[in-house]
User: What shape does this take?
Amino acid sequence: MADVKTVEDMMVPLSEYATVSEDATMSEAVAALKEAQDAFGKDRYRHRAILIFDSRDRQKIVGKISQIDILRALEPKYDEMIAPPKRSFNLGFTRNFQKQMLEQLKLWDAAMHDICRKAAEKKVKTFMKTPDEGEFVESNVSINEAIHQIVLGHHQSLLVTEPSGRRIVGVLRLTDVFEFIAQAVAACKI
Assistant: This one.
């Protein structure tokens, strides 16, 4: 392959991504995500996460919140059910068991009733995920290496840094990588 794409070729620049301060409320984070989705090109997949910056330094990204993180934060009983750091809901529960759990633990009973109050009061720093080493990729890395990193880490996105690794400049999203692969597969003449 003579023309290998880099992460920089496919990333979404940080300036086009939803960001809020770690001191922002869930309500502010949701509004920022909606605004970024509306401003993003209609021909591309919409954003599904919000980047959280340090309250003292807008250039320093300290966390990330996904749509599932917001849903989970609205119902505090989830914190009692699954211990950190692996808050994975891919635990192999049958659908019947999940329904029983919902009914017995009365999940979402009060959560839905108080949704506006909770969203206005809950600070994003209380439920944001802090990216680990495997969630960063340098902008000059080949897309091949980034795909390997996404697959092995089961990541929905990677935070893209300058080649020095110091400053985050964008986000490489799984949806964009998959679109690239889908186009390559469609172009194959079999």
Summary: The chain has a mean pLDDT of 84. The beta strands are 12-13, 19-21, 49-54, 57-66, 136-138, 157-161, 168-173. DSSP finds nine helices and seven strands in the chain.
